[in-house]
Structure formats: C-alpha cells, structure tokens
Amino acid sequence: MVICTGSLALDTTRTPFKTVERVLGGSASYFAYSASFFTRVGVVSAVGNDFPKEHWKLLEKKGVNLSGVQVLDGKTFFFDSSFSYDLHKRTANATELNVFADFIPRVPVGMQNEEIVYLGTLSPVNQDALLDQLPRRRMVFMDTIEYYIQNNERELREVIKKVDGLILNDVEARMLSGEHNLVKAGRKLQATGPKIVVIKKGEHGCLLFEGTSVYPFPAFPLEDVVDPTGAGDSFAGGFVGFLAKKNDFSPKTLRQAIAYGIVMGAFAVSDYALDGLKKIKKADISRRVHEYKKLIEF
Amino acid sequence: MVICTGSLALDTTRTPFKTVERVLGGSASYFAYSASFFTRVGVVSAVGNDFPKEHWKLLEKKGVNLSGVQVLDGKTFFFDSSFSYDLHKRTANATELNVFADFIPRVPVGMQNEEIVYLGTLSPVNQDALLDQLPRRRMVFMDTIEYYIQNNERELREVIKKVDGLILNDVEARMLSGEHNLVKAGRKLQATGPKIVVIKKGEHGCLLFEGTSVYPFPAFPLEDVVDPTGAGDSFAGGFVGFLAKKNDFSPKTLRQAIAYGIVMGAFAVSDYALDGLKKIKKADISRRVHEYKKLIEF
Questions:
Q1: By CA distance, what is B84's nearest residue in A?
Q2: Is A180 touching B (CB cutoff 8 A)?
Q3: A158 Cβ contact list (under 8 Å, min separation 6)
Q4: CB atoms within 10 A of CB A84
C-alpha cells in the first residue's frame, strides 16, 4: 500500500470554455485515484462535514482506504481558480483552507507499518508529522508548491532532507535550488537529501535524476488539453503507484514509472477535474504507455 | 550532396561570461559544418571581400563545396548580439546585411542536378530563387525566422508550399499557424504543404510530425550551455545530413535523424560559435547518439 497525504478539496475551475463547480479536487484525490490503478492507496487527510458522499464513494470504489481521513466540523478545503485562454496561466480566485487550518494528520493503526509514502502538497509541518507516524517508511516521495517555498522554506528543507524522492515543477526547482539550468538545479536538489529528483515541465515532459544520471522524457503529445488541474498529482500517482506495484526502485523501473506518470498526467488533463481519469481502464493505460514507448523509439 | 543556402556571417556574440568578435557564423556555416560529418555539402551564398581566408579553409577542410559562394565587393554580413544571463534571451545589437542586400543565389553548373536541399534562413524570395535552379530537387527542407514571418509572410508561404520539410522553432510555429498548442500548430503547418514538420523547442527538445504521427523528443540534458548561437542550424545539419547519408525518409529514419540533430545541436551550444562542433569527431557523435538512446529507453 502507498500512504499518501495531501488535500481533499472542492474545486471550482474556470477555463475559457467551461466552468465546473465544487467538484472533487485536491492533491490527495488526484494522486489516490491515479495510483489506485496500480496499487492500494491509503489517504491521510481531512474533509468538512459538507463533503459529498458521492466523492467518498468514488474513491472507495477504486479501493482507496479512507480510514485516515478525518471528518471535521466545518467546511472542506475550497479552491476557486481561472485558467487563461491558452491554459498556461492559472489565477487563484479563492483559497479557503477551512478544515485544513488546524489539521494534524493522524495515521490509523492499520497503516502505521506501511513503507511507501507520498507526501502530496500540504504544509511541510504536516508532511513531517505524517513521516513521524510511519516508522517503517522505506521510500518516501514528496511534492510541494511555491507557496511553501516562499513561506515555510526552513521547515520544507527539513522534510526534503528526509525523503527519497522529490517531485516538483521547473519553477519550484529553480526557486529551491537557485539555479536556472534544470540539470544543475536537479543535481543541487539531490545534494540536499533526495537520491531521486523529478522535475516536471508540463507540456515539455520531465527530467528524472537518479545517481549521477539525468534522464529526459518528453510529454505525451496532446492536441487538446482541457483542464490542467491535477496533472502533477496524477503524474505522481502513476509514478509512485507503478513503483509500489513493482516494489523496485532501480533506474530501469524508475524510467518505466516515469512513462506511467506521463501517461496518467496526459489522461488527467484530457477532461475536466477527475473525469479524464474516471473514463479510463487499466488496458487504456498499458496501451498508451506502449504507444508512448513507440513514439520515442528510434 | 546536400545543397544549402543561408548566410555566411561574421558574428560578434556577447554572453555574460565572454565576448567573441567577428567569428565565423551564419545559418549556412553552422548547417554545412554540422552536415559535413554525414554527407557532402554545397553552399550557395555570398561573402564580402573582407571574409577571412581561414573561415573559407575551415569549411573546405570539412569537404564543403564553396563554389556556389559569391565573393562580392563590400562587406560580409555582420551580426552583433547579446545574451541574457540565463542565455535564454538574445538581443540584436547590430544587423548589417552588407553583401546580402542585393544578393541573388546562383547554383553552379556542377550542383544543378542535386536532389536534397536545405533552405537556411534567408529571405523567402532568395529561398525560392534557389529552388528554381534545382529542377531535380526531391527533398527540400527549410527554416525561417520571425523577421520573415512578420515582413514577408506571403512570399514565405509560397516557399513553404513547395517544400517537403519545414523546420522551425515553437514561437515561429505558433506565429505561422495561429495555434498555441504545438500539436495543432504542426498539423496545421503540414496542411499548408510540407509533409514533414519539425518544431524545435530549445532545451525542451522537439516535435516531429510525419503523416498523422507526432513524435516527441527531449533535448539532450546539458549542465552547461555556453553559446546558443547556431543550435538550430547545427540541429538541421545533423537531421538533414543524416537523412542525405541514408537517402531514406521513412518515419524510422526520420526519427533517427532527429536524434542526430539533437546531438549536433547539443555539441554546438557547448562552446562559443563553431568551437563546439570543431572539437568533435565522428565517433563522438555516434557515442552521444547511443548515450541519448539509452537515456530515453525504458
């Protein structure tokens, strides 16, 4: 099982083509849904008592263990954002932390011996609090966002020291490393703790750092990107989910896992919210990975 | 033999780390030098009578046929530019067309039956004039720049109609197609004539369009980019040079050719001006292509 923390949210997402309101979102939702195609996932998070039953059921139907999700008095985390016409620029209209304001993650007894962990976007203090409750952790991956680099850098760097894999985007990698060149940035981040670093570049794919090697991967070419929300967490779900399924973290398996991550990210952005992932089956994933492999073969 | 047109120039390039003055530059120089590792190249261009003998010799030593280069009264094309600290932004300080102001390309008798052509950056009128003199042309590739899209769009589109392969960067592809999404942009450009389109994305690699397929390729990961000048033409030299050597334009060979293009571009940017290409041997190229292949294999 992969234990993940991160947000369960209600998202209102406005693109120039359509607005979807108060749909299931959040880093833990995308990660868990995506990873559930490969492995069992346990979520440690919180929702308010307004959290719709249908969202709960959706995740449970995918075998996601929600016993670590606290239902707290108050409202679920709410995020309202708008995308620019080219879907490259996102503007936050409202961020209501609600139940996350005082959230402390609690790992249920049945999950305390788990070994593979994904720290989705949450405050570094909460990410750290999760780790403390997982004494047998063996492989920990984490993501973060600009906000925590700007506001909680010291705490964030403490968490980064403790993880095995850091997954972040190009802007975040440059901010955290102080290097513009992404190859230098990735190597500098490796030197701060994580032996594995993945720098995501959106439509330009990603770079995987392992040991002294840097593996570049293009994105899956897509003519229609509908909603970029959740691309990163769906990527992480494919990547970490595949690794957990193989229970192997060799360079070769890491590269395969990247391909699964890329494909899951591509499915996620092909429709609004979780709809891109909801309409696929396992066979679609293998087919798409095979297609991707053929495209970059020469 | 590949017949290429484009500029032979004297370049002054200022990076935050070093300035090189009046060194050999221009699209035809980079293309010819790069392609000469794979095939014979004939250049159709012009220089002034100030063009240093050593540049002439440098290209001839690589087997480049310069009988199509007119030595005209006046000065060689001169380009002075500065790069920003991160080497991503280039500012032109001076562009002196000099002998190119009234240049008309003339294909020497010995080259008039050649079949493979590269139209490097020049005015579309000149690119077209070259084609008229190559009645047996079978595969024509071309590049262009923003300047001609803005100032000679009509003439440019006429040339594009006649070519088999269009090689351009992401900004140019978006301008010419009116599409932000590069997959859509490439397909739209294919519909205007060229059955092959290559969209270069600098440090993010490129997209190859052939038939209904879109093949994405990452760049070769480089920790140190020294001088981005000539990256695109060196890429084109590797790509077209390899295709000419194989005399095959199937999807599989096109993909291999892209890898050679990517590697030649990476060598070019690893040092100032042509120095990155001057210090390599054929074996370095095969080694690097093999390394690239291994990096993206999964």
A1: A180
A2: yes
A3: A124, A128
A4: 12
Which residue shows structure tokens 């492989």? A139
Q: Is B86 on the interface with A (CB under 8 A)?
A: yes
**Residue A93 DSSP symbol:** E
- Residue A76, helix vs strand vs coil: coil
How many residues are given for chain B?
298
DSSP codes, chain B: -EEEE---EEEEEE-SS-EEEEEEESHHHHHHHHHTTTS-EEEEEEEETT--HHHHHHHHHTT-EEEEEEEESSPPEEEEEEE-TTS--EEEEEEE-GGGGG------GGGTT--EEEE-SS-HHHHHHHHHT-TT--EEEE---HHHHHH-HHHHHHHHHH-SEEEEEHHHHHHHH--SSHHHHHHHHHTTS-SEEEEE-GGG-EEEEETTEEEEEPPPP-S-----TTHHHHHHHHHHHHHHHHT--SHHHHHHHHHHHHHHHHHHTTSSTTHHHHT--HHHHHHHHHHHHHHH--
Nearest to B235 by CA among B247, B219, B221, B248: B219
Nearest CA in chain A to B220: A216
- Total residues belonging to chain A: 298
Q: Is A24 helix (H, G, I), strand (E, B) or coil?
A: strand
pLDDT in tens, chain B (298 residues): 999 999 999 999 999 889 999 999 999 999 999 999 999 999 999 999 999 999 999 999 999 999 999 999 999 999 999 998 888 889 999 999 999 999 999 999 999 999 999 999 999 999 999 999 999 999 999 999 999 999 999 999 999 999 999 999 999 999 999 999 999 999 999 999 999 999 999 999 999 999 999 999 999 999 999 999 999 999 999 999 999 999 999 999 999 999 999 999 999 999 999 999 999 999 999 999 999 999 999 9
Eight-state DSSP code of residue A111: G
Question: Distances in Å between the alpha carbon of B81 and those of B19, B265, B271?
Answer: 10, 19, 16
Chain A residue with the nearest C-alpha to that of B293: A298
Strand partners, B27: none
CB-CB under 8 Å, B203 with A182: yes
Q: Cβ of B218 under 8 Å from any chain A Cβ?
A: yes
Please give the Cα distance from A216 to B125 (Å, whole number).
Answer: 39
Nearest to A120 by CA among A204, A211, A6, A278: A6
Q: How many CA atoms lie within 13 A of B174 on its CB side?
A: 8
- Joined tokens for residue B175: 């301008």
Please state at what angle helix B231-246 crosses helix B27-35, rounded to 10 degrees.
40
CA distance B150 to B167: 17
CATH of the domain spanning B2-296: 3.40.1190.20
Q: Residue A171, SS3? A: helix
Candidates A206, A214, A283; CA nearest to A239 is: A206
Q: Is B53 on the interface with A (CB under 8 A)?
A: no
Strand partners, B200: B169, B206
